[in-house]
Amino acid sequence: MSISDTLLVKNLGLQSYEPVWQAMQSFTENRTADTPDEVWLLEHEPVFTLGRNGKKEHILSTSNIPIIEIDRGGQVTYHGPGQLIVYLMIDIKRRGLGVRQLVTLIEQSIIDTLGEYQLSAQAKKEAPGVYIGDSKIAALGLRIKKGCSFHGLSLNLDMDLTPFKQINPCGYKNLEVIQVSDYIETIELSQVQQKLTLHLAKNLGYKEGYKTVEKDSY
Q1: Helix/strand number for the chain, H first, E second
Q2: Helix/strand/coil percentages in the chain, nearest 5
Q3: Which domain holds residue 49?
Q4: Quick one: which of 50, 155, 182, 200 has the most CB atoms within 10 Å?
Q5: For strand 135-145 and strand 127-132, is the pairing parallel, antiparallel, or unpaired?
Q6: Which residues of the chain fall below pLDDT 70?
Q7: Looking at the 3D structure of the chain, how many domains does it have?
Q8: Which are the catalytic amino acids?
Q9: How far is CA 63 from the centre of its chain?
Q10: H or E segment at 156?
């Protein structure tokens, strides 16, 4: 198995936010030139996250859902069960990718995945993420350190969207947030995970595709 040509995938299930965030930081800090790239698939317990340059005025009201200030780019967003989270620990320098190119390839992978469900989605240059019409179905937020990415994307599948009303999602007032279940009656998380991982591995240029590894740790 070539380190640079195979993407390792871990399915972590439902997780609280902070331990996974700390694990991403540790993975990125301690990785070497020989560390394979990894993708972590999971769902989060309810949480709002505010990017490092995020403005608190985009938080319109508070509740029992925690608000965590973190180190990714972007403004405030919500994570909760029924939303697919994909964290991408990619050595972008080794892959010869710039940050804008990485974002474009991630967005295209989401678009390709939704296309398999006959959903026509698109990206917007001025507002990272993926949209159906003017409504947002997937969000992106990345951090680059030592030439490597962490954090990643969230794709709304079948979740309670109510908490998004407590914020200006991604810093946009009155932005409508939607999910796959608005269009498709039955959606399986595992199926979407498989399709999206396949498109990510292909679009990011992993010649040997991806390999799922047992969840022994983050």
Answers
A1: 4, 11
A2: 30, 30, 40
A3: 7-212
A4: 200
A5: antiparallel
A6: 1, 215-217
A7: 1
A8: 170
A9: 24
A10: strand 148-156
